[in-house]
Amino acid sequence: MIPNARAFKLRHQRLWLLAQKAIYWQKRNILLIADLHLGKSGHFRKSGIAVPEEVAQSNLNKLDDILELTSPEHLIILGDLFHSNINNEWKQFIEWRKNHAQLEISLVIGNHDILDAENYHKGLINVFKKLSIDPFLFVHDIENLSNQNNNEYTLCGHIHPAVQLKGRGRQAMKLPCFYFRKEYGVLPAFGSFTGTHVIEPTTEDQVFMIVDSTILSQKELQN
Fold first, then answer.
1. Is this model's pTM higher than 0.70 or not?
2. Rounded CA separation 56/95 (Å)
3. DSSP one-letter code for 148
4. Cα–Cα distance between 211 and 91 in angstroms, integer?
5. I need a labelling partner for 156 at 20 to 30 A (CA). Which of 17, 95, 129, 162 fits?
6. Which pairs with CB-CB distance under 8 Å and at least 24 residues apart come from 128-133?
7. Domain 5-222 is in which class?
8. Cα(203)–Cα(12) distance, integer angstroms
């Protein structure tokens, strides 16, 4: 049992939804994350915007904590590992990678993943446009997927899904969430220095929000 995790059955597979904005696929011993956006804080600092240098390291520290909890053999990143052109935060990541040399890492290329292939090679990262591991298909952006195989369920990132809760008066709160539709599911952005996109789920969708390090379904929060 993983602390603060919630079991979720999808295509006859048990997935653990983690409050740290990740999914652990138990049968395959795979950890899934999306949208780290490492290097984003350095990119902003180059533009003269004061962003703490500790942002990137805090994301890697959070990833370390999850790896310790789950001990996966394979880490799959559903796009946007690195936000921009190479900077010092890529060096931080390479140093982190050296400490996890036994971990297989695969990156499904996202729209922000613009580094040269040589950089991913040095980081011992497998690179894919899309990746199939039965019964799932992993992509970054569902909008770029054509001719979807109905036998596969697609998991992706990109939109940084969140639900907006409204209280009395003008009170409102946005909560990151896991968003599962009939054909595909979207992971929340793993990186701490990322925005969110408010979704409008239908009654057929399943939404699990992250509330104070707890995973709650939308129905549970409304009761």
1. yes
2. 12
3. -
4. 33
5. 95
6. 131/76, 131/106, 133/28, 133/30
7. alpha beta
8. 22
196 Cβ neighbours under 8 A, 6+ residues apart: 160, 161, 162, 174, 176, 188, 189
**pLDDT digits (tens), the chain, 223 positions:** 688 899 999 999 999 999 999 999 999 999 999 999 887 544 444 544 445 555 568 889 999 999 999 999 999 999 999 867 777 888 889 999 999 999 999 999 999 899 999 999 999 999 999 999 999 999 999 987 766 667 899 999 999 999 988 766 566 688 999 999 999 999 999 987 677 889 999 999 999 999 988 999 977 766 5
Element (H, E) at 142: none
Q: In the structure encoding, which two tokens stand for residue 113, read together? A: 């993943």
Q: How far is CA 127 from CA 104, 110, 118, 197, in A?
A: 11, 10, 11, 26
